[in-house]
Amino acid sequence: MKVARRVRFYGQVQGVNFRRNVANLAQKTGVYGWVKNLEDGSVEAHMEGEEHVVQRLIQMCCTELFPARVERYHSDVDEIGNLEDFRVIM
């Protein structure tokens, strides 16, 4: 079943290529959406895809993107936008 999640990552997630690495993982796993830096130092992402794939991508973002260090994240249900790619928003 297709889902959409709005995820906010906190920790050492800016200045370490976190957004680009999230986008690369998303493209490899077939997840669509976007990722952007926020002024408070966190990173926000919108992720759409099969539920188990989106959940796996969130976990990969928390554990596999060295030197980034996710200390915590918050995930909410979001509206499906039927996106066709994954973008880094500057």
What would you note in describing this structure?
Helices cover 28% and strands 42% of the residues. It is α+β, with helices and mostly antiparallel strands and 90 residues long. The chain has one domain (2-89): Alpha-Beta Plaits (2-Layer Sandwich). A hairpin with a 5-residue loop joins strand 2 (32-37) and strand 3 (43-50). It is globular and about 30 Å long.
**How many domain modules?**
1
Radius of gyration of CA atoms, rounded to a whole number: 12 Å
Mean model confidence by pLDDT: 96
Distance between the termini: 30 Å
Largest sheet: 5 strands, mixed
**Helix percentage:** 25-40%
Count of DSSP H/I helices: 2
Structural class: alpha+beta
State the order of secondary-structure elements, H for helix, E for strand. EHEEHEE
CATH overall fold name: Alpha-Beta Plaits
Question: Keywords, please?
Answer:
90 residues, Alpha-Beta Plaits, alpha+beta, 2 helices, 5 strands
Brief characterization of the structure:
This protein is α+β, with helices and mostly antiparallel strands and 90 residues long.
List the helices and strands and how they pair.
Layout: E1 2-12, H1 18-29, E2 32-37, E3 43-50, H2 51-63, E4 69-77, E5 86-89
Parallel strand pairs: 2-5
Antiparallel strand pairs: 1-3, 1-4, 2-3
Helix pairs in contact: 1-2
